[in-house]
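Posting for a labmate who doesn't have an account.
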Amino acid sequence: MFGDKKDKGPEPQKRVSLDTVIGPGAEITGDVSVKAGARIDGRVKGNISCQGELVIGKEGVVEGEVKASSATLSGRITGKLLVEGKAELTSTARMEGDISCAKLVIEEGAFFQGHCQMSAKPGAPAQ
């Protein structure tokens, strides 16, 4: 009766569709625009526009305005973070600037200096 579930093991992790990866050691000066998801483990000095989920790894550094449908920050942003859905700052995140989002998650240990504005309606674009 319940035997089906006990042999399956842990649930698989959610996979994120990433079309663009800026790897460690890469440095970009200028604006970046991505039509799907992206992961940044290098440095970007410029604005980022991502229509999908944006992941900034522990070594990722962004200086500029970041726009995404959702974002997980484990590295550093100096500038603005504008997210339509959920913005998540993990324990290693360093955010220096303003955040605008529908939902905000800040883990213990994360650094955030700035202001946060949350949209009135979940799913509505943040201003």
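Reply:
Got it, the structure tokens are right above this. The helical segments are 3-6.
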